[in-house]
Write a structure and sequence with these properties.
It holds the Pfam family DNA_pol_B_exo2. Residues 62-225 form the Predicted 3'-5' exonuclease PolB-like domain. The chain is an alpha/beta fold. It is 33% helix and 19% strand. The protein has one domain (2-20, 62-236): Ribonuclease H-like superfamily/Ribonuclease H (Nucleotidyltransferase, domain 5, 2-Layer Sandwich), CATH 3.30.420.10. It has eight helices and six strands, in the order E-H-H-E-E-H-E-H-E-H-H-H-H-E.
Length: 237
């Protein structure tokens, strides 16, 4: 499949998420109780619900999306290039509306590519679209589909080669495939702090865009192609 994959029909994607509230104390009482119930077994009696709240951003019921970055492959002068675009801000409804509007202009057969996308990015997007009462675009409509009917690409799944217990981070995969990555990035565990304490959304957007670039390069490696040099990568506003 990958050998014949048309890159022009692929959109590389990454999202960044944070808890809906800066601290557990700000969470409405009813949702504090629901959070305690939701995380009871994960905490295993070792952490309080309040201490565990730093992880709320990875759960669509208690988190929100603050950035969606997209990568589009295109050919210019017989050379593969990559264009990056991001939707970001504090208004999740606006971010998702702009993202959905972009997808409405694309072919329904558009394939997404993300690292761990089938476990995280794709379902998270669908859940937050539903919560925000935004129609889920055809490309993300996964309800009722069997796993083999979902044609999105997950680079972590590709690396598993059928080993469903195997987890490999994007940074590790890039390193072993000899893909250069920036050394000055924040990591996922720091996004909440950078957003709520440093109030530095542009830094998070840059981090998200770099993950899209890395995922795109990993996909090219799986296809047996050369990676795209930095001068052929464009970030558009």
């Amino acid at each position: 499949m990958l050998k014949t994959l048309d890159l022009s029909q692929v959109m590389v994607l990454d999202i960044e998420t944070v808890p809906q509230y800066a601290s557990f104390q700000e969470v409405p009482p009813h949702f504090q109780e629901l959070w305690e119930q939701k995380t009871h077994y994960q905490r295993n009696g070792e952490q309080s619900a309040e201490d565990f709240y730093d992880r709320a951003g990875i759960m669509a019921e208690f988190g929100k999306i603050i950035c969606i970055s997209l990568g589009i492959f295109y050919i210019e002068e017989n050379t593969h290039k990559l264009r990056i675009k991001s939707f970001s801000g504090h208004d999740e409804h606006l971010i998702l509306s702009e993202f959905a509007a972009l997808l409405y202009k694309q072919t329904p057969n558009l394939m997404f590519c993300a690292h761990n996308g089938k476990e995280f990015d794709f379902p998270y997007l669908c859940r937050r679209l539903l919560i925000n009462q935004i129609e889920i675009p055809a490309q993300l409509e996964l309800s009722g589909r069997r796993p083999w009917e979902v044609n999105h690409i997950d680079t972590m799944e590709l690396w598993k080669f059928g080993d469903y217990k195997h987890f490999t981070s994007l940074n590790l995969l890039a390193a072993i495939l000899d893909i250069p990555t920036p050394k000055d990035d924040i990591n996922g565990s720091q996004v909440k702090q950078v957003y709520y304490e440093e109030k530095n959304l542009p830094r998070i957007v840059t981090y998200c865009q770099k993950d899209v670039i890395t995922t795109a390069q990993v996909l090219l490696k799986f296809k047996g192609m050369d990676i795209i040099p930095e001068e052929n990568i464009t970030i558009v506003t």
